[in-house]
Amino acid sequence: MTAAASARCRGWPEVQPRHGAALGLRGSAMTLSYCVFSSKQDVVGVLQNLLPAATAAHSLWLDVAHRARVGRDAADPPHAADAAR
User: Fold this and answer.
1) Are 67 and 75 in contact (CB under 8 A)?
2) pLDDT, tens digit, for every residue of 25-84?
3) Which of 35, 36, 46, 73 has a C-alpha 20 to 30 A away from that of 1?
4) How many CB atoms are closer than 10 A to CB 76?
């Protein structure tokens, strides 16, 4: 069972952690920089990594905008608040 399915079964909101989106963005940026600055200048590699980079950037932007709009405590899943007590 995946983490998202487990969260749905327990009634928790599906939340992708911010560090997961940031990690995806960093990995795509590293791969893109290799494809752009290598001696081969691989166009296919650049095109292949634009979608994951855009998806990670969009996820990170949505998370930051949501937390700014709702507030940090309301954006945290219920299980994190229970563990802090």
Assistant:
1) yes
2) 999 989 988 888 888 778 888 888 888 889 888 888 888 887 777 765 554 555 555 555
3) 73
4) 15
Domain spans, the chain: 15-84
Helix (H, G, I), strand (E, B) or coil at 38: coil
Q: Sign of dihedral through CA atoms 11, 14, 18, 24?
A: positive
pTM over 0.85: no
The H-assigned helical ranges of the chain are: 3-10, 18-37, 43-70, 72-75, 78-84
Binning pLDDT at 50, 70 and 90, where does residue 10 land?
A: confident
